Amino acid sequence: MLLHILCFLRFIHTIFQSFCIKPNSTRTLFLKANKQKAGEFMEKKRNTRRKGIRALALILSLVLLFAGAAGVRYYQSQQTIATLSKMGSRGDEVRKVQQKLKNLGYYTGNVDGIFGTQTQSAVRRFQRDKGLSVDGIVGPKTLSALGISSSGSGQYSNNDIYLLAKVIAAEARGESYTGQVAIGAVVLNRVSHSSFPDSIAGVIYQPGAFSCVNDSNWSVEPTADSRKAALDAINGWDPTGGAIYYYNPKKTSNAWMHSRPIIVTIGSHRFCK
What we know:
By secondary structure, the chain is mainly alpha-helical. 58% of the residues lie in helices and 4% in strands. The model is unreliable at 69-83 (pLDDT under 50).
């Protein structure tokens, strides 16, 4: 792109020079011509300059138009690439894909948001089993087959996200980032479960569900981390493997809760079915 622009500018410079009269030539003409001829010469010179300026403006417009179109095409191509999880990709969508594949038994590695060879192999096995094109790239069809929405948080309102971040801040204080996402995932797993209310607000405010709603911790505003954890949970990252319960064994003496099958322990919380 830079090379093309430099070539255009050199071309413009050459054209501009062609429209200009060298000073020595101008001086010679003025010395030899009478006043009438000098006036005609000056008028011709002004016309020549006007034509040169118009030509220059036209060329600059074409250069800008070309550069703008090329820039749009480049941006669109980058956007297309960014929406596909493939070898070398990193981020929330990759974590979401890894967690889904792990829940389905295709992936046994770490849910770290890094699309490596192990993730690619798991994607290819999943695609083969689902009759999809086996390319190891998580495009729209593979995302759909995994049950992952590319719109992510689009199905939830700002208030839903705020409430989820708020309960994370209150319940997961002092926990690792993964532990914060895990609390959000439990809330969302309950939303999807037939035994619980079908909304984030309904789950959080269900009587007896979260003790923090009725104590001083509920006055704590969401932090930047808790907001990010809420969005990661909404976008499909579930470190709990589908848990709908969790408890801190040092703070809970409830026998029924202790009897629940443990899926995973993250920080001070045990996550259960």
